Amino acid sequence: MPRPGGAGSAEFCCGIFVILILGNFWFVAVLYSLWFYFDWGTPCAGGRRSQWVRSWTIWNYFREYFPMKLIKTSDLNPNHNYLLGFHPHGVLVCGAFGNFCTGSDFKNLFPGITPYLHVSSIWFSFPFFREYILSAGIVSVSKESISYVLNNDGGGHASVIVVGGAGESLNARPGSLTLSILKRKGFIKMALKHGAHLVPVFSFGENELFKQVANPRGSRLRKIQEKLQKIIGFAVPLFHARGIFQYSFGFLPYRQPIHTVVGSPIPVKQNLNPTTEEIEQLHELYLQKLSKLFEDHKRNYGIPEHRSLIFE
C-alpha cells in the first residue's frame, strides 16, 4: 500500500510522541492518546480531509519537481461512484499521492467527484502521522472503509486503490512493467457489490523514480523482504536515487516525469452476491481495458513499441 510522506515521517512522529511522554509535556501525550482512542474508527468512516492541508503551496513544488501531470481520457459522471485501480505501485506511489491528495487538478478535470486514496490500515497506527494523512484525504483500505465511500447514494465518490499492493513495490525499478494483479480480485468484488464503475489508471514514470537493490524472486533478499512484509504489514524495498546536491546517491526520487492517465469507466451493475464466474469475467475485462490504456498511451511517454505489460 502507499506510503504517503514515507516511513521516515511516521517514525519522526512517533519520536515526537515518545519525547512528549518522557518530557514535561506528558499530559499532551495523554490527551492525544484519549483522542486517538475515541477517533480510532475515522479512517474507516470517510476520513477527515482538510482542504487547507491539500492546498499547501509545498504540494505545488512537489508536483513540479518531477514534473507530475494528471491526464483525463473520459468524463466521469458525478451521479455515479467509481473505483479507480491505480498502477503501478512504484516504491512510494508518488503519483497517487500527488494527483489524488494534493492540489486542484483532479477537481478541475473531474468536477463533482471526490477522491479517497485507500492505504494500509497500519499507517493509521502512528500517532500524529495519522492526522496528517487523514487531512490529505487518505483513508483505510479495509472493506469497511471502501464500503463507506462507495455507499454514497448520490454518487460523486471515487475510491482510489493501488491494486498491486505492497508486494508490487518489490518489483519497482526503472523499466519494470510487471504488475501484481492476477490474484488481486477483491477490488472487483467490491465494485460489483456496490455497483461502482471501474476505472483503470496507469501512472507512466512511477517506476523510474528509484533504483532498487537486485532482489529476484527466490533470492535470499526477496525471501527476507516477503517475510518482513507478512510481519509488519508493508514491504521494505531497498531503494536509492539521488541526493540533494548530487546525483550519484541519495534517497530523493530522480526528476523523472510522471504522467498519470485516467482511463474510461467500465460500467458495473450492482450485484450484492456476485459469483466467482462473474468476478472472473469482470476481472478479465478490467485487464483488457488496462492493457488497452497502456498500449494507447505508451508511445507518448517513451515506452518502446515492443514493450507490453506483464501480469503476474
From TrEMBL:
Topology term for the membrane: Multi-pass membrane protein
GO cellular component, one term: endoplasmic reticulum membrane
Catalytic activity from the UniProt record: a 2-acylglycerol + an acyl-CoA = a 1,2-diacyl-sn-glycerol + CoA; a 2-acylglycerol + an acyl-CoA = a 1,2-diacylglycerol + CoA; a 1-acyl-sn-glycerol + an acyl-CoA = a 1,3-diacyl-sn-glycerol + CoA; a 2-acylglycerol + an acyl-CoA = a 2,3-diacyl-sn-glycerol + CoA
UniProt KW Nucleotide-binding keyword: no
One Gene Ontology molecular-function label: diacylglycerol O-acyltransferase activity
GO biological process, one term: triglyceride biosynthetic process
InterPro entries the record matches: DAGAT (IPR007130)
Keyword Lipid metabolism in annotation: yes
Places the protein is found: Endoplasmic reticulum membrane
Keywords: Acyltransferase, Endoplasmic reticulum, Glycerol metabolism, Glycoprotein, Lipid biosynthesis, Lipid metabolism, Membrane, Transferase, Transmembrane, Transmembrane helix
UniProt EC number: 2.3.1.-
Coiled coil: none
EC class (word): transferase
Pathway: Lipid metabolism; Glycerolipid metabolism; triacylglycerol biosynthesis
TM helices/strands, residue ranges: 12-38
Entry similarity comment: Belongs to the diacylglycerol acyltransferase family.
Name under which the protein is recorded: Acyltransferase
Protein species of origin: Dromaius novaehollandiae (Emu)
Lineage of origin: Eukaryota, Metazoa, Chordata, Craniata, Vertebrata
